[in-house]
Amino acid sequence: MTGPAAGSGTIDDALARCADEPIAVPGAVQPHGVLLAVTELDLRVVIASANAEGLFGRAVRGASLAELLDPAGTDRLRDGLAGDPAEVNPLHVEVGGTGVDVVLHRADGLLLTEWEPVEGAGQAGADWHRRLPTVLQRLSAATTLDQLGEVLARDVRALTGFDRVMVYRFDADWNGEVIAEDRRADLEPFLGLRYPAGDIPAQARALYATNWMRLIPDAGYERVPLEPATSPRTGRPLDLSGSMLRSVSPVHLEYLANMGVAASMSISLIDRGRLWGLVACHHYAGPNRPSYADRTAAEFLGRTASLLLRTVVAEGEQGGVVEVAERAVDLAAAVGRTPRALGAALTEREVTVLDLLPAAGAAVRLDGQLRLLGTTPPPERVAELVGALLAADVTATDAASRVVPGAADLVDRAAGVLAVPVGGGDFLAWFRPETLREVTWGGNPYAAELAPTDDGGLRLSPRRSFDAWSETVRGTSQPWRDHEVAAARTLAALLTEAAVNRASEDNRLATALQRTLLLEELPKIPGVALAARYLPSAEDVVGGDWYDLVPLPGGRVSFVLGDVAGHGLAAAAITAQLRHALRAHLLRAPGPGAALDGLNEVIGALLPGELATAVIAEVDPATGDVVVASAGHLPVLHATADGARFLHEGRGPALGLLDAAGYRETRLRLAGEDRLLLFSDGLVERGAGGLDAGMAALQEAVSSGPVQPQALLDAVLGALDPPRTDDITLLAVART
Amino acid sequence: MTFDVARTTVAGRPALTVRGELDIATAPQLTEAADAVLAGSPSALVVDLTPTTFLDSSGARTLIVLARRAAAGGVLLHVVAPRGNRPVRLPLDLLELDSVVSIVDSAAELPAAAGSDAT
Question: B71: distance to nearest CA of chain A, Å?
Answer without folding.
Answer: 14
